[in-house]
Amino acid sequence: MSPIRHLVSIDDLSIAEMRRLFERAREFSVEPQSWSHLCRGRISASLFYESSTRTRLSFESAMLRLGGGVITAADMGNSSASKGESLADTVRVVGGAYADLVVLRHSSEGAARLATEYSSVPVINGGDGSHEHPTQTLCDLYSLWVERGRIEGLDVVLAGDLRYSRTIHSFAYALARFGANVVCVPQPGFEMPEYVVRRLREEFAIEPMRANASRLGELASTSDVVYLTPQKPHQLSLFTDAKGWKVGRVDAVYMTRPQTERHPTDPSDPTSYMQLGKRAMSADSLRDAVVMHPLPRRDEISADIDADPRSIYFKQAARGVPLRMALLAAMLGEIEVLDPEQPRGAEVHPIPEGDNPCEAPSCISRTEERHVTPRVRFQGRAPHRPACAFCSNDLTFAFVGCTTTRHYHAADSPAVRQIRPDHQVFFPDAAAAEALGFVRGAQPSPIA
Amino acid sequence: MSPIRHLVSIDDLSIAEMRRLFERAREFSVEPQSWSHLCRGRISASLFYESSTRTRLSFESAMLRLGGGVITAADMGNSSASKGESLADTVRVVGGAYADLVVLRHSSEGAARLATEYSSVPVINGGDGSHEHPTQTLCDLYSLWVERGRIEGLDVVLAGDLRYSRTIHSFAYALARFGANVVCVPQPGFEMPEYVVRRLREEFAIEPMRANASRLGELASTSDVVYLTPQKPHQLSLFTDAKGWKVGRVDAVYMTRPQTERHPTDPSDPTSYMQLGKRAMSADSLRDAVVMHPLPRRDEISADIDADPRSIYFKQAARGVPLRMALLAAMLGEIEVLDPEQPRGAEVHPIPEGDNPCEAPSCISRTEERHVTPRVRFQGRAPHRPACAFCSNDLTFAFVGCTTTRHYHAADSPAVRQIRPDHQVFFPDAAAAEALGFVRGAQPSPIA
Amino acid sequence: MSPIRHLVSIDDLSIAEMRRLFERAREFSVEPQSWSHLCRGRISASLFYESSTRTRLSFESAMLRLGGGVITAADMGNSSASKGESLADTVRVVGGAYADLVVLRHSSEGAARLATEYSSVPVINGGDGSHEHPTQTLCDLYSLWVERGRIEGLDVVLAGDLRYSRTIHSFAYALARFGANVVCVPQPGFEMPEYVVRRLREEFAIEPMRANASRLGELASTSDVVYLTPQKPHQLSLFTDAKGWKVGRVDAVYMTRPQTERHPTDPSDPTSYMQLGKRAMSADSLRDAVVMHPLPRRDEISADIDADPRSIYFKQAARGVPLRMALLAAMLGEIEVLDPEQPRGAEVHPIPEGDNPCEAPSCISRTEERHVTPRVRFQGRAPHRPACAFCSNDLTFAFVGCTTTRHYHAADSPAVRQIRPDHQVFFPDAAAAEALGFVRGAQPSPIA
C-alpha cells in the first residue's frame, strides 16, 4: 500500500501529477453528476477554524458529486476550541475514525503541516493563514490550462496587491515551475516582496527585468512593471532593448484585491486602487488575454467587463469543483493520479534543542507550542538560510550551535555551513547558547 | 429544453401548477423514504444570509429524502460577505458549478429576484426580508387543501398581526387567487394594510365589507372584523344585512405572532396580544375550523389546544417536507409539474436612466447597487402606479420623463399614461429631470 | 410494532442490550465503510443548542457510514430560538416529519427527557447541561470492554475533578451496574459528591472504603483515595487491613479535566491541577492500566505519554463512531439490539398540583415552564426522597400534601410514606399548602 499523501503546499505535487489532475478534472467537468459511484461510502471532514464559505462549499460539492459524505465544522473557532482543545488532538480524532480525508482551514501559518503529523488520513490545506492555499493555485493553473491548452511559455500578468496576497505568491512559484513568464504590474507600494523574487531566482533561475509596458495601456500607467522569466539571458538579448523587455501579447491578466483582512490598516482608499475595466482591457496587448481573479472581487474588477468573453473569473471559480473532484478522488486512492512517492521538497529537520527560533506570531509553532516540535528547512544553498518548516518564514537568530561539538558560532561564520543540518540549534544571543552549555567555537568545527 | 424556472413569489406558479404540486406532495407524504432515487446525484445549496433553522432543515430534509445532496451556508452574514462579496457574485458561482438548485434566504427585499438574474440554476426564495416567502404560503395552501379537499370557496379567518406579517399578506393574495374568502380579525392597531386591500381589490376583484362577528366569540371581541370575498355583489345581498356580512361557519383560523423582529418597537406588551385557546375555540362558528400557524408560535396560541384535533399547526409544518420534495423534484425537472412557460405576471422593465427611484432602505436595489439595474413593474391599470420590481414597494416620485421625447411631466399628469412603460424615467423633482436634459412637457406627449 | 425507544440516560439500556451493542460496534469497526446500505433513506437530525463539534461530528460520521442522511442545526442557541420557540415545539416538528431520529444537545438539564415527550421519533441525548451524556458513557464502557474483554470485576481509577464531571458520575454508575470496582482519586476539593455515593450505595449496594494507595505512586500523593466496590463485606475482610483496602493492580485510569465551563470560578490555577504523565504512569500498580480520557484534554494528561501503548484516549474517541453506528442502527430498528420493552427505571409521576418544586435554575422544568408538567421520581426506598424527573436533582420542600385527603404533612412525617406517589404534592411552606386548600394532617393519613 502506498503511503498517505497530503497536500499542504503546491510543491507537494509534481508537474506530472498536476497534469494528470487537470486531465481528470476536465473529464469530470463534462458531466459532473455521473461520478457518484467513485467515492461512495467515503467521508470528508471540513475542519474550518475560520469560515470560508466558497472554499468549503466547493470541496463539499466536489465530495457529494463523487458520492461521498461530508461532515462539517464550519466555524471551529467558536466550539471545541473553547474547551481548549489543541489542533493536534482534534486532528488525531477527526482525521482518524471520523473521516477518510480532512480539509483544514486555519488562521495560523503551518497548521496544515502540523495536522499531517497527527492525522492518519490525507490532509488537504484549505488555507493556513497567509501561508499557502494550494487548491486555489491548482484551480488557477487548471483554468489557465483549460483556456490556453498549456501553461509553459505563457505570458501572465499579475496585477494589484502583489505584496500581501498569498494567492499571488503561490501562483507565481507555480507558473515558474511550469515554465511560464510573469509580468508584475503591482499597485504602487504593493510590489512583489524581495523574498518571493529571491526564491524565484534561486529555485527556478528566474531573472527579473524592468519591462517597457507601454502596450499594456492604462493598466500599467502608474506601475513599475517587472518581467520574470526563466529564459536564458542570451535568448532575452534577442528581443530586449535598453529599456528592458517590451511587453507584447499577454495571455492572461490575474487581478487581486487589496488584502485588507491580512493587514489591519487599509492599504489604500478604495478609489485609488487599480481597477480593471473596459478601458484597461482595450489595451492592444490584452486583446486575447483572459481575465482571472481568485474571487471575491470588490471594485478592482469593474462589473462592466463581466459579460466580456475574456472575463473568465466566474468560470475559474466554477472549475474548482471538477478540479477538487479529481483531487479528492486521487487522494482517496480512487483514481490513479499520484505517484507512490511525494516529490522531494527541501529536507526538514527537527531542531534538537533550544527555544523555538521562529518568531512569526501567528505560526502554528508558536500558537500551539505544546504539540509542536520546531522544525527547520534549509532554503537555497549559498547563503545559510534556514526557515521555519511550518510557516516558511526565515528564522531569526544570531548564533548557531552544533549538538555534537557543543560549539556555537556567529550566524555568518563559515563554520556554520559545516554543521550537519539536523545538528543545528539556533540562538538569539550568546547567553542563550551558553545557558544550554554551548561554548563559543573559535575555529570552524569539523563535520560532525 | 425548457427554460429555467425560479420561485421568487407565489405568483410565479399558476393555479394548475400548484394543484399538481399538491397532488405530488400528497403522494410523497405516504412513504417519504421511498423516493431516494429521484434526485440522486443532484445538489441543492442552502444560501442563508440570515439563519432560519426551520426553513433550512425542511428544505434539506426534502432534498435528502429525494436522494440528493446538500451544501449549506447557514449563516452567510458572517463569512464571505465579510470580504465584501456581492450576492450577485456569490450566486454566479454557487448557482452554477456548485449546485443544481439554490435556496436563498436574505434580509433584503428582492434578493431572490436579483439572484435569478445571475444564477444558471433554479433559485427558490426561502424568504427575502419582509417581502415574500412563497414556500411558506405553498405549505399553508397545501395543508388547507389536504384538510378540506379544496381551497375555493372556503372561509378562512386571518387573525393577529395582519399589518407586518408577510406570511399573512402572501397567504391572503393566494387565497384570493384560489377563490377563497378571507375574514380579517386583526389585533387592534395591526389591521391589514391599505396597499394589500387595494391589490386584492384591483387584481382579484375582492370587495372588503364590515362583518358581524358575533358568532366568532372571544376571538373577535375587540377587533373590527372585515370580510374579503370575490363574490359578486348581487350574491352578497342575499345574505348580508345592514351590519354587513354575518360570519357563519369558518373553515380555518390562521393565527400569527406579533412580528417584533420586523419592527423595532414591540407592538404590544405580550399580555395584551390576542390568544387563541380553549375558550376562543369554543365559539360556535369555529366548531369545525382547523387552527393554523406558520410557527414558531409564542403565546398567541395557548398550549391548552395543542391536543385538540382541530389544531393542525404541527401537521402543517410537517407537511412542508413532502411539499418541498415535490417542489424540488419539479424544479430539478425530475417530475412533471411545471408548465414550460412561467405564468405571465406584470411586465417588468429596466429603468433606462436616472437614479434608482426605490426608496425602501432594505431593498436589494439599494443594498447592492453595483449589480442591480433598477427595474419597474406597473401595478393595476387606472392610476399610474409603478412599483420596484425587486421589493414590490410603490416608487416615490414627483415627475416622469420619456426617454424618446425628452419631456417630463408631473406624476399625475394624463400625459404620463401615454409614455411607453419601458421609456419611463422617474424623478423626485424637476431639477433631477433637468440635470439629465429633460424639458418640461407642456402638452401630453404623443405615444412614443 | 415495538414502541419507540429513546436514550436519555444510560439507565435506559439494560446490561444485555449494552453487551449486544458492543458486539455490533466491534463488528462495524472492522470495515466501517461497508455498511452504507443499513440506513439508506433515513435521516438523523443534529439539534445542538450548544455547540459540541466532537459529539456532533461523531454522530454524523456514524450516520453517513450507515448510508443515512444528516440535517444539522449546529448552534440553535442563535436561530429559531431567537424567535422564542420552545424546545417542545421545535422537537414536535423536527422529530416528526424532518427526521427519523433526533440527536439533541442542550444546556438545560432534562431537555432530552422533555424532548421524548414531544418527539414521534427516537431521541438520543447528546448531553443535557451537567446532567447526562449517555453516549459518552457507552463509548467509555465499550472501549474498556474492547481493551479488557469484560467490565465486571475490573478495578478502574477515576481521577481528577470527580465533583462536577457528569461524565464521571455516569461512568461510575455504569461501572457499578456492570459489577466493576471504582478507585476514586480526586483532585483535592473535588471529591465525588455525597449524592453520587449515596446512589451507588442504595441502588448498587456499593460500599465506599478508605483505601491505601501507596502503590498508586505520584498520582494519589495528595488525594484521599476511596474504593467503591460491590463486593460483599465478608469477601472484603479477606484482603483489607486496618488502613482500608490496599490498591493493587489497576485495569484503567480514567482522567478528567477541571470542569471550568460548568462552574464560573476556575477551581484551581492550572499549575496545581493533577497531571498524568510519564512519572505518574511509572507507578507499579499502573503497569498494565490503560489511560482513558473523554477529551478534549488540556494539561491534565501530558503529551509525553501520548505515544505510550497504554494511552488509549484517542482510540477511545475513535471507537465512538462504530459504537454510535450500532446505536443509530439499533434505534432506527435496522439491527436487533434493543428489547421491545425499555428496562424499568424508577417510576415517574406527574405532580398533580402546586408549584414546580424543582429549584435547579437550569432545569428544563424551569427554563421551559410552558410546556413542562413537573414530574417526580422516587429514589431509593427508606428515606422519602423524591427527585425531579427531568434534572434528577432532589426536590426541596418542607411539606407534602395528598390530593385525595387534602391533608398536608411535614416532609419527615411517617404519614408521608403512606401517600400514593402519584397523589403527592410538594410545598415549600405551610402557607403554600393552605393556599391550595390543604389542611394540616394531625394523624398519618390512611392509604389513599
What features would you describe in this structure?
Three copies of one chain form a homotrimer. Chain A has twelve helices and 19 strands. The mean pLDDT of chain A is 89. Chain A is α/β, with parallel strands linked by helices and 448 residues long. Chain A is 27% helix and 19% strand. The radius of gyration of chain A is 23 Å and the shape is globular. In chain A, helix 6 (166-178) links the parallel strand 5 and strand 6 (181-186). Chain A has helices at residues 15-30, 53-65, 87-98, 111-118, 134-148, 166-178, 194-204, 233-239, 313-318, 320-331, 364-367, 430-435; strands at residues 43-48, 69-73, 101-106, 123-128, 155-160, 181-186, 207-212, 226-229, 240-241, 244-246, 252-255, 290-292, 348-350, 375-379, 385-388, 399-402, 407-410, 424-427, 439-440. Chain A has three domains: 10-132 and 320-331, Rossmann fold (3-Layer(aba) Sandwich), CATH 3.40.50.1370; 155-250 and 252-287, Rossmann fold (3-Layer(aba) Sandwich), CATH 3.40.50; 348-440, no CATH class. Chain A binds chain C through residues 40-43, 45, 69-74, 76, 78-80, 82-86, 89-90, 92-94, 96-100, 370-371, and chain C through 32-34, 36, 51-54, 57-58, 60-61, 64-65, 67, 70, 72, 74, 257, 261, 295-298, 303, 314, 317-322.
